[in-house]
Structure formats: C-alpha cells, structure tokens
Design a protein that fits this description.
The protein is an all-alpha fold and about 55 residues long. It has one domain. Helix content is about 50%, strand content about 0%. Helix 2 packs across helix 3.
Length: about 55
C-alpha cells in the first residue's frame, strides 16, 4: 500500500493542520478575524476545534 499525501494529512494534529490550511472564514477577501499569519493560524485552530454539527 502506498502512503499518500492524504494519509499524511489525516494523521496531522490540529496545530499542524491549522498551519497548512487556508483560512476557513476567508470569503475570497482577507479574513476579518486575522491580522497576520500568527492570528490566522489561531483562527484556523479555533475553527478546527469547533463543532461540525450546526
């Protein structure tokens, strides 16, 4: 079996995912919650930890 990039992503913890994903609150413009890379990572981390239900 080949270990794929998708497999690697599935194994990442929240912090690693927050570092690589695009801001989930960005509507195509600059995210209003993020002022810089550090706060955007924190914003992504908050989003990853929110409930997906509702």
């Amino acid at each position: 079996m080949v270990f794929t990039h998708a497999d690697k992503i599935r194994e990442m913890d929240d912090e690693a995912l927050a570092f690589i994903i695009m801001c989930p609150r960005d509507d195509g413009n600059k995210c209003k919650n993020c002022g810089d890379v550090i706060t955007c990572i924190a914003c992504c981390l908050d989003w990853l930890r929110e409930s997906a239900e509702g």
